[in-house]
Design the sequence.
């Protein structure tokens, strides 16, 4: 029951010990012992007290002492042949970039009952407890274990853990870990007295439902010498910048005198988010991003707020966009006592947006210019966010069918801005009741997604004010109503089944995209499967694409799709047809 491997790789693989694995791979064995039952409590105290620092001696003593403790339960498991049998899985953990083996990686089952570290050749072997009749080939074929792997300094396409579904007795399981990427740098102020610490913010471009948006990742504080380090990063597109900070030199800021500070500074030497350099980060790569903030004088800003109704003061969410470009960086606050937006800003042109959710949602915007003096800006008037109705129509002329008594659909709006204050995919609106409307929609641009409740129904068209919303976003202006969304449904939806070089051991992303350019009618699915199915498709031509990895295709971006016009397969789908496609997955870059 005790396995010793090269490089001091020693792991208990007894089911009665592995009731819990910690998040830290280095403490997996220790936590499994600490979490064992009362029978091992005395042994745990004894070995921890006497041999806490001697790993080899600790392992030998535990092996000897635990043998009589584990024999009985493990023997009883084996004795009940068809109820609880043991089986083996072995394989290798590889670096996904270099394809070299990874030593000292922790491999464990999803139920955390068995685990092992890899040896210096990246090899591992697990003894599994299988609840099945192993003599029955059909039952044996249905058994699969989800294995996961992790090691500090590595990430995967799904996050920090590599995973794979395998069957018992497999000796060639391959798990891949992606070496972490890093962004490091140094923030250099004009003088040593100006500031000693500053916050550095990291944004990453993420793709959701075929649309790319910048989302905040994390922020860190520089060391005293100005150095910073973002670790555990996946491959992708990033932007990095310093947050606002005040001048800390006591000789520079005097009481009742001018105030100096350091506005946000974006890598490399940019003054707003839109013009900042995009860092293209590859797996295992380290990029240096040095930033030099610029000292500027700040001036007081005051903007009165006009609310749609008289009532008690409520909080406001305030956003400041420099140079007319949406993006993070500058900040102002709301003073409910004065019912005004207040703060300070350096010279420049700014767009100020404010929104409130109490008692009713409302939004307003105004523009100001700071030019070497304080600003009493024009009032910012909050106007109620709009209610957008939608109407559902039926067009079943292509099939012999009676109309559905009351067509049921769900309607979702996804923000179509590359930068969103909400982050995490931006602002979303969905139908919340039987009322055919979307309430409290803020001004902006939105992709419209319609999902019929019946599997044989497809979306034939979506429009508002004559604009095709399957091909372009819905625009919601400030302080104006929006024409109702007109939805037409058809009966006799098609289905496409996709198979090919998918072995189910890792994630694959499938896209089914209309050739007509109606991007909102596109479909995507992903998972570790050998076969995929996409349904509720309208008759027409579709391009089928498969990628090795998680969903990252910006199919709503025509520029991003240009390179895929000759790839994949094009399928013509008629009403009610079920088509089958076989294709190879495109390797992730």
Sequence:
């Amino acid at each position: 029951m005790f396995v010793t491997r090269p490089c001091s790789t020693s792991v208990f693989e007894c089911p009665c010990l592995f009731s819990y694995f910690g998040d830290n791979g280095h403490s997996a064995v220790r936590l499994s012992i600490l979490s064992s039952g009362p029978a091992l409590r005395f042994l745990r105290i004894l070995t921890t007290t006497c041999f806490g620092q001697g790993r080899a001696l600790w392992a030998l003593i535990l092996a000897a002492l635990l043998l009589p403790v584990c024999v009985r339960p493990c023997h009883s498991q084996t004795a009940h042949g068809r109820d609880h049998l043991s089986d083996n899985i072995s394989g290798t953990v590889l670096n996904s970039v270099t394809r070299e083996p990874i030593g000292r990686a922790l491999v464990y089952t999803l139920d955390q009952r068995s685990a092992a570290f890899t040896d210096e050749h990246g090899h591992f072997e697990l003894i599994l407890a299988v609840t099945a009749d192993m003599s029955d080939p059909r039952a044996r074929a249905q058994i699969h274990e989800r294995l996961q792997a992790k090691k500090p300094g590595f990430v995967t396409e799904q996050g920090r853990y590599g995973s794979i579904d395998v069957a018992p007795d497999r000796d060639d399981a391959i798990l891949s870990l992606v070496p972490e990427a890093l962004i490091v740098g140094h923030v250099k102020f004009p003088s040593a007295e100006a500031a000693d610490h500053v916050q550095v913010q990291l944004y990453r471009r993420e793709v959701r439902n075929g649309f790319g948006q910048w989302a905040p990742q994390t922020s860190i504080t520089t060391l005293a010498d100005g150095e910073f380090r973002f670790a555990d990063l996946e491959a992708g597109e990033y932007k990095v910048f310093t947050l606002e900070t005040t001048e800390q030199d006591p000789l520079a800021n005097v009481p009742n005198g001018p105030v100096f500070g350091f506005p946000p500074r974006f890598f490399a030497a940019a003054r707003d988010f839109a013009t900042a350099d995009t860092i293209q980060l590859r797996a295992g790569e380290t990029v240096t991003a040095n930033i030099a903030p610029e000292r500027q004088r700040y001036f007081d800003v005051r903007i009165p707020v006009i609310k749609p109704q008289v009532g008690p003061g409520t909080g406001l969410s305030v956003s400041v966009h420099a140079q007319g470009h949406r993006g993070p960086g500058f900040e102002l606050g709301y003073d409910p006592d004065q019912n005004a937006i207040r703060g300070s800003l350096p010279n420049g042109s700014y767009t100020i947006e404010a929104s409130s959710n109490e008692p009713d949602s409302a939004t307003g915007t105004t523009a100001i210019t700071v030019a070497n003096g304080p600003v009493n800006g024009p009032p910012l008037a909050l106007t109620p966010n709009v209610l957008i109705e939608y109407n559902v129509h039926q067009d079943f002329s292509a099939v012999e069918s009676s109309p559905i008594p009351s067509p049921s659909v769900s309607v979702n709006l996804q923000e179509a801005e590359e930068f969103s204050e909400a982050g995490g995919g931006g602002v979303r609106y969905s139908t919340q009741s039987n009322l055919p409307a979307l309430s409290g929609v803020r001004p902006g641009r939105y992709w419209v997604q319609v999902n019929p409740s019946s599997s044989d129904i497809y979306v034939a068209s979506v429009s508002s004010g004559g604009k095709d919303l399957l091909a372009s976003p819905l625009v919601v202006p400030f302080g104006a109503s929006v024409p109702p969304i007109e939805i037409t449904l058809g009966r006799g939806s098609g289905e496409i089944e996709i198979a090919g070089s998918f072995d189910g051991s890792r994630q694959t992303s499938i896209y089914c995209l209309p050739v007509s350019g109606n991007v909102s009618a596109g479909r995507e699915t992903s998972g570790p499967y050998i076969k995929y199915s996409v349904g509720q498709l309208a008759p027409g031509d579709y391009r089928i694409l498969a990628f090795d990895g998680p969903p990252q295709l910006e199919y709503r971006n025509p520029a991003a799709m240009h390179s895929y016009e000759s790839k994949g397969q094009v399928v013509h789908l008629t009403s009610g047809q079920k088509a089958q496609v076989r294709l190879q997955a495109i390797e992730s870059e």
